[in-house]
Amino acid sequence: MESLRRDLGYALRSLLKHPGFTAVALLSLALGIGANATIFSVVNALLLSSLPVADPERLVAVYGTDAKNQGGFLNYMPVSQPNFDDYREQNDVMAGMFAFQFAPLNLAAGGEPEQSTGLLVSGNYFDLLGVRAIHGRTFLPEEDRAPTHPVAVLGYGLWQRRFGGDEAIVGREIRLNDLQFTVIGIAPENFRGTNLLATVDVWVPLSMGERVTTGFLRDYFRDRRAMTMNVIGRLKDGVAVEQAEASLKTIASRLEAAYPRDNEKRSVQLIPLQQASINPALRRIFVNSGRLLMGVVALVLLVACANVANLLLARAAARRKEIAVRLALGATRARLVRQLLTESLLLALLGAGLGLFIAVWGRELLWAFRPPFLQNAELQIGIDWRVLGFVVLMSAATGLLFGLVPALRASRSDLVAELKDKSSQANQDARWWSLRNALVVAQVALSLIGLVGAGLFAQSLIRTQQIDPGFESDRLLVMSFNPGAGGYDEARGREFQRRVLAEVHALPGVGAAALASNAPFGGGFQRSITVEGREPPAGGRGILTTVNDVTPGYFDAAGIKLRRGRGFNAFDREGAPHVAIINEAAARRFWPDEDPVGKRYQFFGEDFHHEVVGVAADTVQFTLGEDPQPQIYLPLEQHYSPELTLHVQTTGAPDALMPQVRRAVQSLDSNLPIFGAASIGQLLDQALWAPRMGAGMLGLFALLALALACIGLYGVLSYNVAQRTQEIGVRMALGASSRTIFAMVLSQGLTLVGVGAALGILGGLAATQLVAGFLFGVSAADPLTFIITPLVLGLVGLAAAWLPARRATRVDPLVALRYE
Amino acid sequence: MSGSEPLLRLDGVTKVFYTDEVETHALAGIHLEVQPGEYVAIAGPSGCGKSTLLSILGLLDSPSEGAYHLNGRPVEKLTASERARIRNREIGFIFQSFNLIGDLTVFENVELPLTYRGMKASERRERVHAALEKVGMAHRAKHLPSQLSGGQQQRVAVARAVAGQPAILLADEPTGNLDSTNGEAVMELLRELHREGATICMVTHDPRFARHADRSIHLFDGRIVEEDHSPKAEKELEESGFEMN
Fold first, then answer.
1. Which of A9, A197, A802, B65 has the fewest beta carbons under 10 Å from its own?
2. Do A13 and A83 belong to one domain?
3. Which domain CATH number covers B134?
4. Domain tally, chain A
5. Which residues, 6+ apart, have CB-to-CB distance to A40 below 8 Å?
6. Residues of B in contact with A328 (CB under 8 A)
7. Do A330 and B101 touch (CB under 8 A)?
8. Using one digit for the tens of pLDDT, what is the confidence trace for A522-535?
9. Contact between A332 and B97 using a beta-carbon 8 Å cutoff
């Protein structure tokens, strides 16, 4: 212990005595470890952290599946409420099950009206999760049985934000969607629901669902076909997930047989809640992105390690005599290696400490790159024990990685020669195949891999930016509101819609305005359709297709081109023939090689047909670069929707008109919350998150790796020039010109860069295959990228080699020949 | 020469260096004994193998052939860690270029071999103080080597060599980097240590300093070509009943 303390003390003093070395090494390590800690802290928060509930490992998420609609989020659907009731009553594997459904709730209490995130939950929700109210109570079983209990539990954040943490709010009434609710309790601060990415503001009993929901949520609330309920169950003791899944699948089969019209090819799958606190389809995206980023930062760390190893080798060379003396005085090789490794580990730990500071700052930066659908998510990205453990382990591994070889090498000293100052090690270090040069080659190769990745993502970003979203991408602003949640019935709601359009149209600077049930990039409600003449077997369902209810001016206001047929007009109202406009993807899907105008289809569950009167251009529904998805537009006059997005095409900058449009809407109802207000430019910016994050992160880390590699190259060449001073002096004495000497050193540097670049190209070709799935419009083996990035690297390498080469030409032969 | 067990004995020690395809015979069939308390000088021209001989005696290098006994124990085939242990406990080195560690204070430099021995801190402190007192450098214990003159540095190196109370002191041109005044002072220090009973083996090319030793061994081309005793030593030997050639 004493010798360890001594080693530590010596190591610390040694680092302090060589501030230049220590600063460069610490900076390299801090950047490498900091980058890793940053990414890991986000990965930890998203993928590894547990929910603050009792025995979370016994909780499972129950997802609905539909063999007719698969892929992505469709593999992890909710289940319908009647089916949930049957699963709950008929299973013998769960200690309990609860359902919940997100519902936007207009809150009119404690300040300006706002749309809060509401969660309709079964009465046993809190009990089954093992969560207790910090003030008041949670729901009673009877409060789940009939819609006669307008009670609410407030989230801690909302309680603090809107009510200043006043405990007296318990027992008082608040208005949610124009209904009076009694606050019965406050949830704990750390409990924000079972979805990591959503913070619940207020919980209300599911029994109140049909009274507080609006639109299709209300229409399909108790429909066995509508997959609207998220379900979580707590496994009975001794029951495994697979066993429970088999049991629920058996019930699903019975339900399919009993209700074939609604449940054909539908079943369930169970996933432990620990892996389902983010929707598994989204989680997979995070996992893949996390892997990519962890890979990139590991690359940066490797470059940093190579840098520090190179510095340590240089330092070990300078310390050869000291090490020889220690060995001569009786230190064993193991003892010396331990001492040198102590220095490396101390360096790594100090680097990790600085890296943690970088991580604290970096995680905010990284989270700022999150996708648009997570803009409102309040993820707690903390530096917890797991992050600290990761950093400590990583720094220990890093210390060993960069410290072991230099330590072993240093301890293999030629004692006699070193003690007599006659070492040949210096000459060995200057040779081009030395370990130090190999490390520089590795750094250059790793940097090139990073640069190639960044180049590919940058090209991908450019290609994505060039995508035509299918709608106006400059002078358009949108904002959403939900009159239904404000207590408007259909008649009042329709009147409100008409007045909003009239008010907005009257504003100067407005070119066109329209309402739609869907917002840009927001997807929409999906319904299954069957084409006339191609009806599936009796009772069967059709293909899920996004439906967007719009007012007549929608295509002009949103800037969507009509390819064929006509748009909606004032005659497409209630009582008139049901008409629809489809997009080109729907035309290709349902009427390939035919003119769809005049064709008819039917929505599942309806007994009448809609006639296609027009074909519109495809538009992006969720994200730029997606394959065009079928979409059907319906006249809002024929299909009332209580929640709407106002689309306003402006004649000038949309941001400038935003306050006037907002005021115009609020002048009609100041209690109606407006949400999702944005210019199309802002929405497009958010939609570019994936390629921008990829290009930004990879670019940042690749530049970091490149900078570290350049420092390494510069360091090695400078060291070699210093070691070869005498040789250079001899060469000059024998007649070598400055130009010859300059070329000699420069060519040595460029040889290292060339070898590294060649290896980097090979590595890049292999590594970029792993990111092919993230790229848009550019091949993972894009020739342009693989030509330009090595050239860039070569130029930077040239700059790094220039100074040492210049220094070599300034060697004075007279001085050099006396040089020892 | 003597009936007592020698402290070190070399029998037919040969050292060959191989560089590329060239063989260099640095030592050839060296036979040498050093008695406890003896002061031996190894002299010879540059390149004669004297430093190689001292390196083998100090277990910094191994013979290509022949046997080496230290304190009656064969040591020519020990492992690296066993050799390190013997160097640490039984041998004290004094180098021409002092070889103090620049980052350590005078105290820490002298203490260094004792730390490798696992000695208690209190005992180390006592030994270091005693050694520094002996060489007159106790007042500089907290200084760094760079703050000392060459002569002072060599005195610290002597203190480091004697602090562990080794069986033998090996000095390799201890005055080679010193001016005459400082060189004489260091030689006086060695003489004093010898008077106190230390066994010393010193490489030197300076005949003035070789004369301080009890016995001088002259090397040439890796062989012992001459061995002579100082007048004082001869007298002592004759008084002991030894016949001198």
1. A9
2. no
3. 3.40.50.300
4. 4
5. A294, A359, A387, A390, A391
6. 58, 60, 87, 93, 99
7. no
8. 888 888 888 888 76
9. no
